[in-house]
Design goal:
There is one protein chain. The chain is built from 17 helices and 15 strands. The protein has about 450 residues and is α/β, with parallel strands linked by helices. The longest helix has about 30 residues.
Length: about 450
């Protein structure tokens, strides 16, 4: 017998070769007993994923993809909802830079895991920001707040909780609404229906349709409400209409689920933009609220938001929080620390908070001024139609009323990128680009039906 075949090293080598073949999918070359990897290229039939079809581009993010490919020097991206300066540049708030510097200089800070519910200080301050400093629900410990991954994550956690624990698993969302809403709620296990919201004829609120549809909803159904600056229309109910909506929903036992992506960013006032939500909290009823700091603090990439659930009693709130933990733990375990620390640093410091409100109002005012400039530019060109809705609508977006053919014309002829429903981000405009947009809109209305 060949002593090499029975030697410990030879036997060990063979075991390693066999083990490698099982663990990493390799073939043995019988000529040299060495390991060679399977081919990494070949026909699709070699892939277990060959049946997978290419998914469509996200209708909003896809606009940016197309914009980036366009070499035109006059191209303009009005699709994605991100604030831009008058020079068309992304903005990092000065107060955010100050807060980050404070965090960097604090040598006691560590990078340990946060609790499942997130940074406690951030949660407490976020609830106070939306519900008010003297909110009875907060004082009575009837509010549970958990840090989530911006507005989208907050909506998803809330939806998962409702799908597991609410007796009515149907949610009514406005028609139209943000394109991600139906996907979030459907994948979480809720049945999605719509209620009338926008009136194309007036380019305003279809309040009668809204009331009729909510009246027809089954008792206990969930209703998604945009806290302010409705996306994509920019059309909000008046205070009187909000009060009617509140009375109707409470009388039918409908569960309000507020999406607040623009507090302070819409009107320039944090308190004014929170009023619809505070109306519902003041009556002692229950509700859910998803908050995002992407827009009002410019923290898009930090993915920082919160989900609050207002309950009837402190005991219920405690039990609800325990179940929210069970939703979050297998989803992403716990949230990131940096963005929450920035927000908490700003909200808890009087000087930083005041500086933030000044910068926030400046952003809101610039968007309002872009609305006025665009309206005046269209009026000066004699563009057919009534464009007063541009200055009546509020927030980051304007629902222009342009149809998909007109949008396609503007993209092809003027290199202006926007969603096919005619929504434009006012935050992406500047004094220099308003004339170009007005020219494109004028041509589209005149030449394309």
């Amino acid at each position: 017998m060949n002593p090499e075949l029975t030697s410990p090293s030879s036997s060990s080598d063979r075991r390693i070769s066999v083990l490698a073949r099982h663990l990493v999918g390799v073939e043995m070359d019988p000529q040299n007993d060495s390991i060679s990897a399977f081919p990494t290229s070949g026909s699709d039939s070699n892939s277990v994923f060959s049946h997978v079809v290419r998914g469509p581009e996200d209708p909003i993010l896809g606009v940016t993809v197309a914009y980036n490919k366009d070499p035109s020097p006059v191209k303009l991206n009005l699709g994605v909802g991100a604030y831009r300066t008058e020079e068309g540049k992304p903005l990092v708030l000065n107060v955010v830079r100050k807060a980050e510097q404070l965090l960097v200089n604090d040598r006691s800070r560590v990078k340990e895991y946060l609790p499942i519910t997130g940074l406690a200080e951030f949660n407490k301050l976020s609830a106070k920001l939306m519900f008010g400093a003297n909110c009875p629900a907060i004082q009575e410990n009837r509010v549970t707040t958990v840090q989530c991954l911006s507005g989208t994550g907050s909506l998803r956690v809330g939806a998962e909780f409702l799908a597991k624990h609410h007796h009515q698993r149907t949610i009514y969302i406005p028609q139209p609404t943000w394109g991600n809403h139906p996907k979030i709620f459907t994948l979480a296990g809720l049945s999605v229906k719509t209620y009338r919201y926008y009136d194309p004829a007036t380019r305003g609120l279809n309040f009668q349709g809204l009331v009729e549809d909510l009246n027809s909803a089954p008792s206990g159904a969930i209703v998604l409400l945009h806290a302010c600056a409705h996306n994509p229309t920019g059309v909000d109910p008046t205070s009187q209409q909000w009060e009617q909506i509140r009375k109707l929903m409470r009388s039918k036992g409908l569960m309000p689920f507020f999406d607040s992506a623009y507090q302070g960013f819409a009107s320039g006032s944090l308190d004014a933009d929170a009023q619809p939500v505070r109306m519902f909290v003041a009556d002692g009823g229950e509700l859910l609220l998803a908050q995002s700091y992407a827009k009002n603090m410019g923290l898009y990439g930090e993915r920082i938001g919160a989900l609050s659930i207002v309950c009837k009693t402190a005991d219920v709130a405690g039990r609800v929080e325990s179940q929210l933990k069970l939703v979050i733990r297998p989803m992403y375990s716990n949230p990131p620390i940096h963005g929450a620390s920035i927000v908490a640093a700003i909200l808890k410091d009087r000087d930083l908070y005041n500086e933030w409100t000044i910068e926030l109002k400046a952003m809101a005012d610039r968007i309002i001024s872009m609305r006025q400039k665009l309206f005046e530019a269209l009026h000066a060109r004699g563009t057919p139609g009534d464009w007063s809705h541009i200055v009546k609508q509020i927030g980051m977006f304007t629902f222009t009323g342009l149809n998909s053919k007109q949008v396609a014309f503007m993209t092809k002829e003027y290199h202006i990128y926007m969603t096919s429903d005619g929504r434009i981000s006012m935050a992406g405009l500047s004094s220099k680009t308003v004339p170009h947009l007005a020219d494109a809109m004028h041509a589209a209305v005149k030449r394309v039906v």
